[in-house]
TrEMBL record, chain A:
Stated name of the protein: Apoptosis-inducing factor 1, mitochondrial
SUPFAM superfamilies reported in the protein's UniProt record: FAD/NAD(P)-binding domain, FAD/NAD-linked reductases, dimerisation (C-terminal) domain
Protein's organism: Astyanax mexicanus (Blind cave fish)
PANTHER family reported in the protein's UniProt record: APOPTOSIS-INDUCING FACTOR 1, APOPTOSIS-INDUCING FACTOR 1, MITOCHONDRIAL
Needed cofactors: FAD
UniProt family annotation: Belongs to the FAD-dependent oxidoreductase family.
InterPro entries linked: AIF_C (IPR029324), FAD-oxidoreductase/Apoptosis (IPR050446), FAD/NAD-bd_sf (IPR036188), FAD/NAD-binding_dom (IPR023753), FAD/NAD-linked_Rdtase_dimer_sf (IPR016156)
TrEMBL record, chain B:
PROSITE patterns: CHCH
Residues spanning the membrane: none
Keyword Metal-binding appears in the UniProt entry: no
Cited Pfam families: CHCH
Record's protein name: Coiled-coil-helix-coiled-coil-helix domain containing 4a
Residue span, CHCH domain: 64-100
Annotated spans, Disordered: 102-155
Organism: Astyanax mexicanus
GO MF annotation terms: protein-disulfide reductase activity
Amino acid sequence: MFKCKAAWNKLAPLARASSTLCRQAGKRAVLRHERTPQFVQPAHMSSGPSGGGGENTLYFVLVGATCLAGGAYAYSTLVGDRERYQQRITEIESRSSKPAAEPSTPAKTQPETAEPLPAAVAEIVPETPPVTQSASEPASAAASPAVEPTHAPYLLIGGGTASFAAARSIRARDPGARVLIVTEEDDLPYMRPPLSKELWFSDDPTVTETLRFKQWNGKERSIYFQPPSFYVSPTELESVENGGVAVLTGRKVMHMDVRGNKVKLSDGTEISYDKCLIATGGIPRNLQVIERAGDEVMKRTTLFRKIEDFKALEKVSRELKSITIIGGGFLGSELACALGRRSADLGLEVVQMFPEKGNMGKVLPEYLSNWTTDKVKKEGVKVLTEAVVKNVTYKEGKVEIKLKDGRVVKTDHVVAAVGLEPSVELAKSAGLEIDSDFGGFRVNAELQARSNIWVAGDAACFYDIKLGRRRVEHHDHAVVSGRLAGENMTGARKPYWHQSMFWSDLGPDVGYEAIGIVDSSLPTVGVFAKATAKDTPKAATEQSGTGIRSESETEAVAGSVAVGKAAPTPPPQQKEDYGKGVIFYLRDKVVVGIVLWNVFNRMPIARKIIKDGEEHADLNEVAKLFNIHEE
Amino acid sequence: MSYCKQEGKDQIIFVTKEDHEAPSNAELVEDDPNDPYEDHGLILPNGDINWNCPCLGGMASGPCGQQFKDAFSCFHNSKEEVKGSECIDFFRGMQECMQKYPELYPQEDDNESAPSGEAEAEAVLPADSTSSDSVSASVPTSEEVASGTESPATS
């Protein structure tokens, strides 16, 4: 089959050319023999049939020669190809037998989660002769890293939260499913929120190695969704009895052939699939002024997203004296608070700058954003609002940031938290649509891009039946959409319906959960209770002794952690202290977004109100449903 | 005493406890229990088990997922007086499988997995709950097991 196809591909241009030639020759022959079509005027040929006889022969000879030449070329090409193919196979075989020759150091010592998966799993899973269909014969001993499955019934591109949620969903619904996750990272799937929150609050000095954090309920867990033993080795995926989930790390999908239902990886391997999920997430944006600033500045800049970024920044926070965070959204503010909290102990200066008027300026209404900024400042952060960076240079051992209004900040290290660029490189080869408004792959309400292709997580621009087309970059959305994609990949045919939520904690005094479209440009109605000292995340957790965080979909959600050093909560002020309340975001008089400000365990009510999509005349009445005065 | 103010397009209302004492007159739309789009709790409207319920954690999807599903289905469909008494073999199979993956399924010292599996199954069947939120909030035992699968030893 392959041979025929390859042969055809090679010879197609030739065939086309020769067929054109034949057709043209045929046409002329028809005219000569006067089998003129009815509606054509009989052309007055300069040469009659008899005169054309000699020319006919010439044409036949020409065509014949062409065909012969074509045939000869085809033959030589095929032979050459076959030879090259054989060479490649022998090369692969020799390559795969080399690693087997090395005494297989099965990672009997510390299987770190960072290590390539086959090595770690080989120790645990009993050795079975791998039944692979790839051309190279693996040595039957150690699982050689070069051997991969060539077909995956469920192929998930990307190894993040959405992908893992989908894998779990597929396994739950399709018994014995074989799921292959391909990720360019070296890590197994992990959750991202603790990287900018809980991990920084940990008392454990080895936290950068263990990557464990304490949840709201006091229990410790790793940021990895599952330990390596949960996963099946890629080489065994096709043979293991009840199926499983395998992760191929360090491999990027470079090309997607939608017609042929297969992808090509960065190492040249091809994997075909039945159903495919694209969950490629995104990469952090950078400021142009930093990119243009040269190597010395780039060396001292962190684009925060992955585990390695967390490790690097943690090291920087201990070694350097000043860190500046550019960006006032979720990531920037959370990192600023996390670092700010350490600033006193470490003798570290933490600066945060952004163009808006206050922290979370694009999310919270102005009065609340200003209030939040004050809180962030109390965490030890030097906040510069309305700060637009003009240029960045490296001078005298310091990174110098010049703002458009003339202010200058000299710092040791920069963290750029200015947004996420969705990873849509596969759109070109796959022929998928990219959304021009929100970025990301454009998919329908069921997260489907094309027949066997779904997209979930940060990279998906989907149609939300209630709220319209959008793209959401939050953890719970990755879980919800990944789960939905997994369900739809197993035939559920359900649209996006269960609204995902998000949350943020900025220090012990400010914690909020939100749902829907929370955009500060929308008109808002905020209903606040007169605050008491009991109304903070810290207090709420301590008092009830249980979790206050709304349950995120699949995983236990990490909430704020009350760490020893927090100052005693100041007594509530009399005037305008936005201690706790509910803020409604309206679009055409319908509530499309809700923020629960220091009010917890009420997400189901908020979800219901958004789902109803009703116009409520008096939002104070709606606010009553939340019982904000109670715990 | 509550008061209200307007800052541009944003309205702010401060309310006291008394203000909110009267029950709300906001109208909410009646939920359709058979809504095909809606997520369901542990038990689907037709009586089947929703293996994709977040409350189960990774139990149905891990390496011992099949054994778990067999055991739990047997228990769920059991009509014996002592519910699940005929399912011992399935639970044993599940326990044997789980013992192979101590990292994923940390073994409790005191209880055997079989009875605790059944106890968990009982606690997990608040029959008519269709809201996944309430199920996950109100089921401590299954949550234990579920989060047990998610709190692996350091690798």
